[in-house]
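ok new one. same drill as before - structure tokens go in, u give me an amino acid for every spot. 435 of them this time. try not to just spam alanines like last time pls lmao
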């Protein structure tokens, strides 16, 4: 029977019915279209379809008959499987219900804990903010007590500067802007800062003038506390250097010398130079030349005193900076300032002093024949003034200045007058050869 059905299947085309996109309407329309063209008979197609259906029914019946026992066992297994699935479904429902109950037990406490955690964080931030505000107000009150009316003493000024530094640090580390009580006090801090800086400036200047190391140290500590030490030292060194430059320039100014000679009561306007020719270029007459020369060398002596004062001030700054130290890093103030100034403060001062001395002496010699001859003829006197100057300065810094010409500072200063030395030696040699 099976062989007969298989033989019948060989005449049936199942391929068109096994296509994934099979559409019965499309298939029927195709048969009708072919019938309209005369390529296929509809009756024959219907007969073929009926035959195919009968063949498939027979094959299904044979399969059921052949595998009857297997199908029954499968059906029994399906019933058992349905029972198992029902049990599993019931268990899943129980698990789902337990999950919902567990979620209810966990979710609500979790949300509460989350809320409490946020509240705690905000309370901690608020508490920290209040603590900083209280610290700020405490420092402000302490600053007010440390700064009574009138001049501030060394100790009061130093303490006030340290308190102000704490206030600045607190404001930098904390965002207290917008708090009215803080904003009101911040506006007053600038006035306090200005007063402290002005007092420290006066203290530093007084200490420098009187060579009082304690005053200078207290003033430098104030500027360090306010993080202004670098700027102040640079400003002080620049001020001393500029002051020396101005004094050197004033010392060798020919117009100033002429004015001083006139004020001495000796008239030079009627002086004549050989041949009865009056000098109209500001140069002294032959009779007035000794007076001008005397005035010049008195000015040079005074200049050496002023240079000495400037040098001992810069050495005083160096000494105090070397023993004042940062309490945390133990770095000396001198190291801190040297790093900021990109070099040694004292050496830079000497470089500036020698450069200005050389520039102004050469400029004066170029502008005045009298000054040129005075410095050339009086070179030994000029050299003697410098050596006396070196001797006085060496008391304050033996390592910096001495009679030893290998000392860098001495070499710089001697180099500043080297042009006059060469002219003096040349002139002396010529006089010797003429004899």
């Amino acid at each position: 029977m099976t062989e007969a059905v298989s033989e019948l299947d060989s005449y049936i085309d199942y391929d068109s019915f096994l296509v994934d996109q099979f559409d019965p309407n499309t298939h029927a329309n195709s048969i009708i279209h072919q019938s309209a063209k005369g390529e296929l008979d509809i009756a024959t197609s219907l007969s073929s379809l009926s035959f195919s259906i009968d063949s498939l029914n027979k094959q299904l019946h044979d399969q059921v008959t052949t595998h009857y026992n297997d199908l029954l066992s499968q059906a029994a297994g399906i019933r058992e499987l349905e029972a198992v699935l029902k049990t599993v479904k019931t268990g899943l429902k129980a698990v789902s219900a337990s999950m919902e109950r567990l979620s209810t037990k966990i979710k609500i406490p979790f949300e509460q804990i989350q809320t409490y955690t946020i509240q705690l964080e905000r309370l901690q931030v608020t508490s920290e903010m209040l603590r900083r505000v209280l610290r700020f107000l405490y420092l402000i009150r302490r600053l007010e007590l440390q700064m009574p009316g009138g001049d501030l003493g060394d100790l009061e000024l130093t303490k006030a500067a340290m308190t102000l530094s704490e206030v600045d640090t607190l404001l930098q580390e904390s965002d207290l802007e917008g708090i009215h009580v803080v904003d009101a006090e911040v506006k007053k801090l600038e006035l306090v800062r200005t007063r402290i800086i002005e007092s420290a400036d006066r203290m530093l200047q007084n200490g420098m003038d009187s060579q009082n190391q304690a005053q200078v140290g207290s003033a430098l500590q104030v500027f360090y506390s306010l993080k202004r030490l670098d700027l102040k030292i640079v400003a002080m060194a620049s001020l001393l250097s500029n002051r020396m430059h101005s004094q050197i320039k004033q010392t060798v100014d020919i117009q100033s010398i002429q004015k001083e000679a006139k004020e001495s009561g000796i008239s030079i306007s009627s002086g004549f130079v050989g041949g009865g020719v009056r000098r109209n270029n500001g140069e002294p007459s032959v009779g007035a030349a000794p007076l001008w020369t005397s005035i010049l060398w008195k000015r040079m002596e005074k200049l050496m005193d002023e240079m000495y004062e400037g040098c001992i001030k810069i050495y005083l700054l160096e000494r105090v900076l070397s023993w004042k130290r940062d309490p945390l890093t133990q770095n000396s103030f001198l190291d801190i300032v040297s790093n900021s100034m990109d070099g040694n403060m004292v050496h830079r001062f000497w470089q500036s002093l020698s450069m200005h001395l050389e520039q102004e002496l050469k400029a004066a010699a170029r502008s005045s024949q009298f000054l040129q001859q005075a410095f050339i003829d009086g070179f030994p006197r000029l050299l003697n003034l410098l050596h006396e100057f070196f001797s006085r300065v060496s008391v304050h810094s033996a390592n910096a200045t001495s009679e030893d010409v290998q000392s860098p500072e001495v070499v710089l200063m001697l180099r500043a007058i080297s042009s006059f030395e060469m002219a003096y030696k040349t002139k002396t040699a010529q006089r010797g050869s003429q004899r």
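The first helix runs from residue 2 to 9. and btw Confidence is low (pLDDT under 50) at residues 267-278, 400-405.
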